[in-house]
Amino acid sequence: MSATDWYAHKSLGEGLYWIQEKFFESSNRANIWLLRGSHQDVVIDTGLGLRSLPDYINSKGLLGDDPQRKNPLLAIATHAHFDHSGGLHQFQQVGVHSAEVDALANGDNFETVTWLSDREIVQAPWPGWRARQYRVKAVQPTHILQEGDVINLGDRQLTVLHMPGHSRGSICLHDGDNKMLFSGDVVYDGAMIDWLPTSQVSDYISSCERLVGLVDSEQVDQVMPGHYHTFGAKQLHRIASGYIDKAGTCPARFSTFAWRTLAGLALRASNTRGGASASQGTG
Asked: Residues 68-88: pLDDT tens digits?
């Protein structure tokens, strides 16, 4: 299967494109965002990496043909989990928060939470493909991101907001001028996951308090999340404040501990280092 078959996209206007992997039918299927700038373009999250995302973007002409554009496309992972980071190795420029650089550089499929089943891939990317072969390929980030860093696209800027909780290196990217938030898995309109081995509920509560503050200070109008559909400020406030209210209760703490224990055991069983070299393909 070619890259042009594997992906689909939709233009949302003003240089923003939404891209998805058509044959990855799962709640784990991440939104891929392509944002054009006058001097720099960025891809925010990269999906599984089973087919070449750069080939798709180029074949569809999403970057245009301006000969003055000099900077290679920059791929930024909102965090290191496999559904967001699997395609990073396909790009010359790669950005991730400093807390998760080592996980990507070492191809640590425990921290990237690599857990994929055959039933989630409804059409194999190539003959004989099996989910048990899948691993996130090691990649050395070229841009090590920190809280407050500004990614300059020329006519727009993205500010890095370190929002740990879902994972230790989770970030949001805030386009303050356009009041747009690329939120990764920090927040989306679904059940927020705080029970993975590197999740931390207390950090998640703090991050959600920051999200509420962004809404209260009228800095966000639109959220482009890591999963599911986009939503506005009112819904962001409801989701974030709802998490804060529920996360500290005793039943929630017990449930988180139980799920973290089970998830850790399952991930260790399915991601032994001996299987980390299996090919996943890029064509």
From this structure: 666 889 999 999 999 999 999
